[in-house]
Every structure is written in C-alpha cells, then in structure tokens.
User: Fold these one by one.
Assistant:
Number 1:
Amino acid sequence: MCADFPDDSVRTISSATEIEDLKLSVTDSDTSESFSKEMKSILFYNDGDYACYINIDSTATTNNFKLPSKSAHSIDIPCTTPHAICASGESCTLYIRGIR
C-alpha cells in the first residue's frame, strides 16, 4: 500500500484537454450511449451489485470483457460509443469517463 492512497484507488496520468462523463443503467439488453466526440482513453467503473460486460463501438454480449462489481478498468483505445450488458436478470450502474 502506498502512503496516502488506498490500494483500490485509480490513478491516471494524461495529457488530456477534455473529459466527458456518461452514466449507464445497464440491464440484460445491450445498453449504450455516445460521447459527443471520439475519446482516446476510457475509464469504466461498475458501481452495481453484479458484473457487467463491456465492448467498444459494437454491441455488447456476455462473451465480452467482464467488469466485476465495484471494480474499474481503463483502456487507451479510440471510442465513440461504449456498450455494456449484464447477465440475464441482473443490472448495474456503470460510470464511464472519456478523455481526449
């Protein structure tokens, strides 16, 4: 553990000039929302009680990257429309921060 930082904190370094936030109420159907412009990096945080599955600029399925409950994931891939889905009968709130 680093002094003054809990182990679960997310730290990022970026030369970004713009940030845009999205909030998705993810269900067992593909859920998506578009940024106003293409983002260069994306940070996902799953604030729900269930895992969700995320995809970039394409429909999400439960075969995509699994983001467990109460966890974060960042990627440096251009993206305009993040997609997410939960397993049947589950839901979560997904916070997404885009950086350009």
Note: The domain at 19-99 is CATH 2.60.120.770 (Jelly Rolls).
Number 2:
Amino acid sequence: MDKYKQRQEVSLVGRILSMEALLFLMGVASLFYGIVKGELFNVLWGAIIIGVVLLLMKLRRKDLNRHREDIVAVPRAGRGGAKRKETGDERGKH
C-alpha cells in the first residue's frame, strides 16, 4: 500500500511541476510575442504570468521546507510527550 501511495504522490508532484513549467513557458511566449509584434498587452500578460509563477514557486518551496521541519519536530515532541506521561503516571501512583 505504501508503494502505491508513494507512486501517487510522485505523479501528483510531476503534474504540478509540469503545470508550472507550462505556465512559465506560456508567459515567456506571450512576452516574446508581445515584444516582437509590439503589443503592450501581451508583454504585460507575459510579465505578470512569469512573475506569478516565480512567486508561487518561492512560496511553495517555503511551505515545503516548513512542512519538512514539522515532520522532523513531531517525533521529537512525541518522545518528550511519552516522558511526561510516565511522570504523570508515577505521580498518580503515589
């Protein structure tokens, strides 16, 4: 079951990365087309798309790093919590 879940997560990540790449390429194409044809509207859309994609990539990376920190912190907190329970149990016995 874990293999299936891992494969599912990898395919989801692959889809997200490809969506980002497609959006970025669309922004570059719009920017390039606008510059070549001299159309300000396409240049603006291209710049906006590229900026938003880069911003989202940065925010996602921060969120992913925060998530990794949480994963590492949970087992540490779990060990401390077990010690507290033992101490609480010992208090209740006396």
Note: Residues 82-86 have pLDDT under 50 and may be disordered.
Number 3:
Amino acid sequence: MEITTVHDALFEFYKYHNATSNQKKTCPRCSRPGTIFTAVKEQAPSHMHDMTHGEQMAFGSRVFTIQCKLENTADDPCIDIEFQYANRVLYSTLMDTLRQDIETLRNSIVELKHKTVYEYIDASEADAQFTHLSEILTRVSTSASRIMEKNMVVNENPQKAAQIKKWTTTFIAEQIPYFKKIMESYDKTKNLTTLNDAISYYLTELAPMSTQIRDMTYEYQTVVFNDPMCVLVQRRASYSNQVFYDESNDSFLRKDVAPVHAT
C-alpha cells in the first residue's frame, strides 16, 4: 500500500503494530521483521501555553513513528515516517468542556479580585495573575466561538434549513395537491391521457423533489437487513460531521520511503 496521506500512515501503523505483541514488528514496506512502532499520547501546540482541558481536546494531537530497523540498515531504513494525527472529539463533548473551562477561568478571576480587595495577595502578583488568566480566557472564548460557528455551518446550516423548508412547503402545498387533482380528474373521466400526465408529473416533478428533500435532510441513510425485516436508518448528521479536529495537526513531520527491492 502506498502511504500518501496521514490516514494511510495511521492505518498502516495500527495494522502492523497490533499484529504482534513483540517490540519489533513486520515492516509494512519490505515485509521483514525489524520495524519499530512508537506513539506519543499527547502533543500540545507549541504556541499555546497553560492549555485548558478543552483546548487539549480540540488542538492536541498524537505523534506516531514507523521506522524499519533491520540489522545493517539502521542508517538507511527502507521506511522512516513520523506523523502527527489530530485529536478527534464530538462537538457536543468539546463545547461542554470549553464552557466548563470558561466558567472555571471566570471564577478564578473573581476569586483573585476578592483576594486583591482584602489584600490577601500582593498587588503586583495579582496584576500578573489577572493578566495571565484574562489572556487564557480570551483565547478559550475565541476558540469556543469559532468551533461553535463551524458546528453550525456543518450541522446546523441555516441556509440548508431554509432550503429544506422552502422545498417542503412547495412539495406539500403545491405539488401534492396538483398531483391529487390530476388523479381525481382521471378517476372521473378514465382518460388515459390524463393518467399519462399524472405519471409524467410524478416522475419528473414529485419524485425528484421528494428525493432532494430526503437527501438534504439526512446526511446518512442505509437499510439494515434483520431477517425477516428491513429497517431504514436515517441520520440528519453523519458521524464524521459531528466530530471536530484541527486539520493543521494532520501532517507528516518526516516521510522517507525507499523503493521496495526484491529480496
């Protein structure tokens, strides 16, 4: 398999890393034993200091390495990859955590002000702490606002909701009554031309509009076969759309993959 994306690299990492409990695994490139797989659990962005729990969830990442370490080839491995993979977290969980972070920071600032009023803390130290806490609060609040906005665009798009409402109104108030009117006319006259008009209207107008409304309303649709029943499963948002991650954290830090030679 060619490793062209971070997702490819992650797939190869777990595919071969979980294949055996030995420290040295089979190389996904040359298929010989001697590859070392390592993973660092958390990697915080270098520009963020004193990250809150919510920020760690949103902007943290894990760093993985895949390196072929065969004897006599340590200085020239056939595969030497290091990549970071952004944390994935549900929007709902992340927003709840960020709200808790903001509340905790606000309470800390209020407590600091009380200590200052009653002179429980030196004024210069209080000013420094206040500035520090205020900077973190501003940063977290800004991040929460941007993440909330992204969630609304992806999962609660007002333009999408307005379009669905417009189509549904047209479908219920205009198209269905018109189709019923044609069918009522056919029931009275038994005119085949009228029946053909009804069928044509259904195929060209009614069915396509119904499909448009359904597809825009539900991101995920599938039929689950549970003999002897079939169950239609529909979700307004797919799982991938409900998950937030920082795209900039999905990247290769080092990628050296040599051609595979016949052994």
Note: The chain has a mean pLDDT of 83.
Number 4:
Amino acid sequence: MNRQAVARELVKVAKLLVSSVSRHCDLYKARNGKWYMNLGEEEHDEYRDSRTYGPFDSQEETDEFLSAYFSNPGSSEVDDSGKQPVPTRSPNGDPVVNPERHSRW
C-alpha cells in the first residue's frame, strides 16, 4: 500500500472516531464560475478563523474534497449565486489552498 492509500485509510478511521466537529464551513461559487470552501481548522472556529480551499469545478467536487480530507464540520452554508469575489487570501490571512496541492500530512 502506498503512502497516499495509507493516508486515505487513516482519514477514514479518524472520521469514524470523530464523526462531527462543530466549526465554520461555507461553500460558494465565485464570480469566475469556480467553487471555494472556507473551513475552520479547529472545533468551534468561526469565519475569521477559517482557511480557504479552491478552486473547484463544481459544488459536488468541493463536497467530495471536504469528505475526503476532513471530518464533518457539523453543517455548512452554500451560496451558488456566483456573486462572491474570487478569494486572494483566507479569512484567517493564510493563502488560498489549492486542492491539487493539499495534503493533511
């Protein structure tokens, strides 16, 4: 089993142990037609604490990324209006995380 496969299995086990962690999560379609996600890193994090991930091609792709790499945030808000600006920084000040380069480890 390669390292990525092991990592995916560990995420699955961790999700079973921590099925839901209450923290900020919102998914939105930006003016460029791409989807982005703001997600709190820790339990009880608010919008200002969240990190932005994207771009994604669809809401479904964003949901799949969330499910693959993170425990359930408890709930999420979705804005599919396409009126949000394209993010240049996360609400917490970090750079936007490209999902193709993202790794939990």
Note: The longest strand covers residues 77-84.
